[in-house]
């Protein structure tokens, strides 16, 4: 459009210039050429008129071009406004869609959290049930699984019988009348010379309401002690171990994994070679994925030892752990105090009542041991 306008103006300028040149030439002609001047003047006038008309036409074309340019500009501006309006509508729809998506995502997250809380609550309830199952399993008093040390009484076998080396200061044993240095002679008329015989005879008749008659020799004189065995049974049945008997402290924040948080020193877990950070994946060949299942498996253990599958640093290991309270005569752990020449000798420290006693040569078992068949 702008190029056409320039061409029109150029054509007008050339026409007007030609007309002026012709008029000048006519005015400068000699008098004798008057008729020719008249003709030339007429011709010049005609050319000037034609130039004026051309100029008017050019102005009209310029006006038309300007109008067309204005119309085109208005159309372009309207198109731009429409485009902006469409962009605003699209952006608004996108923002609204994003808000809806964000709301849906937040709702989904809330629902997932609620489900997670419910799942964790169910797992915790399962763990509580499993612990109750353990306590229920422990509600059965089996004398063959009891050691004198479990009662708080520590004995030493002498050539002529048993001697009391220590008595716990609390619990039912503290009310039995037994004292350190007493020599056990018999229980209910049956002579006892070993710790196993002492426990078996003491609880030979658990239903009896009469106390057991324990004859001891104290300071060279025999005396009879009436020991109420029911107090020991009640004390045992009311105990709550919470895995402490095994020496295991587990991470209970993740019920879907059995991860060891800490190990109690000189406990079955310690001597089995279990370490902090181990993940227990199986018990007695059965895969374990939840803490509740692990507790139930321990409660159901009925052998002297049980096998644990452990994942340590992404490497599988098999360890064997003693079942607390399951006594066998061949077990290396004993409640008998080491045979010291003189317990009262200078420089000898007496273990505190109720302390765990293990042989001096006991070492942690880091390699799997063959299971008892």
How would you explain this protein's 3D organization?
The chain has 373 residues and is an alpha+beta fold. 43% of the residues lie in helices and 18% in strands. It contains six helices and twelve strands. Strands 1, 2, 3, 4, 5 and 6 form a six-stranded antiparallel beta sheet that branches. Strands 7, 8, 9, 10, 11 and 12 form a six-stranded antiparallel beta sheet that branches. Strand 7 (248-250) and strand 8 form a beta hairpin. The longest helix has 104 residues, at 34-137.
Task: Spell out the blueprint of helices and strands.
Layout: H1 2-27, H2 34-137, E1 153-158, E2 161-167, E3 183-187, E4 190-191, H3 195-202, E5 212-218, E6 221-227, H4 229-237, E7 248-250, E8 258-263, H5 268-272, E9 279-283, E10 286-287, H6 291-299, E11 305-312, E12 315-322
Antiparallel strand pairs: 1-2, 2-3, 3-4, 3-5, 5-6, 7-8, 8-9, 9-10, 9-11, 11-12
Helix pairs in contact: 1-2, 2-6
Write a compact overview of the structure shown:
The chain has 373 residues and is of the alpha+beta class.
Q: SSE string, helix = H, strand = E? A: HHEEEEHEEHEEHEEHEE
Tally the beta strands: 12
Number of domains: 3
What overall form do the CA principal axes indicate?
rod-shaped
The helix content, as a percent range, equals 40-55%
Mean pLDDT: 76
Structural class: alpha+beta
Radius of gyration: 55 Å
Which spans have pLDDT < 50 for at least 5 consecutive residues? Answer: 327-373
Note the total helix count: 6
First-last Cα distance: 107 Å
User: Beta-sheet strand percentage?
Assistant: 15-25%
Largest sheet: 6 strands, antiparallel
């Amino acid at each position: 459009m702008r190029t056409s306008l320039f061409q029109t103006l150029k054509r007008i300028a050339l026409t007007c210039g030609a007309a002026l040149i012709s008029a000048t030439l006519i005015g400068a002609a000699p008098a004798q050429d008057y008729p020719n001047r008249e003709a030339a003047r007429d011709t010049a006038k005609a050319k000037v008129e034609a130039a004026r008309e051309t100029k008017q036409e050019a102005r009209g074309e310029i006006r038309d071009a300007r109008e067309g340019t204005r119309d085109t500009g208005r159309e372009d501006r309207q198109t731009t406004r429409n485009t902006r309006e469409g962009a605003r509508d699209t952006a608004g729809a996108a923002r609204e869609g994003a808000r809806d998506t964000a709301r849906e995502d937040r709702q989904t997250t809330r629902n997932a959290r609620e489900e997670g809380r419910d799942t964790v609550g169910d797992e915790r309830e399962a763990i509580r049930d499993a612990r109750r199952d353990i306590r229920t399993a422990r509600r059965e008093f089996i004398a063959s699984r009891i050691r004198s040390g479990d009662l708080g009484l520590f004995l030493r076998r002498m050539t002529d019988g048993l001697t009391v080396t220590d008595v716990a200061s609390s619990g039912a044993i503290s009310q039995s009348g037994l004292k350190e240095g007493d020599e056990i002679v018999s229980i209910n008329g049956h002579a006892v010379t070993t710790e196993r015989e002492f426990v078996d005879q003491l609880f030979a008749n658990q239903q009896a309401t009469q106390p057991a008659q324990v004859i001891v020799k104290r300071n060279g004189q025999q005396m009879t002690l009436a020991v109420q065995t029911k107090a020991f049974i009640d004390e045992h049945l009311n105990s709550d171990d919470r895995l402490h008997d095994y020496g295991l402290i587990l991470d209970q924040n993740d019920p879907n994994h059995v991860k060891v948080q800490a190990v109690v020193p000189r406990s079955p877990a310690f001597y089995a070679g279990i370490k902090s950070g181990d993940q227990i994946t199986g018990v007695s060949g059965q895969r374990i994925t939840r803490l509740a299942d692990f507790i139930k498996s321990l409660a159901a253990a009925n052998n002297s030892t049980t096998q644990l599958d452990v994942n340590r640093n992404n490497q599988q290991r098999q360890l064997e752990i003693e079942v607390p309270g399951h006594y066998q005569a061949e077990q290396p752990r004993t409640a008998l105090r080491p045979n010291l020449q003189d317990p009262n000798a200078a420089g000898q420290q007496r273990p505190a009542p109720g302390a765990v006693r293990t042989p001096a040569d006991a070492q942690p078992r880091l390699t799997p041991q063959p299971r008892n068949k």
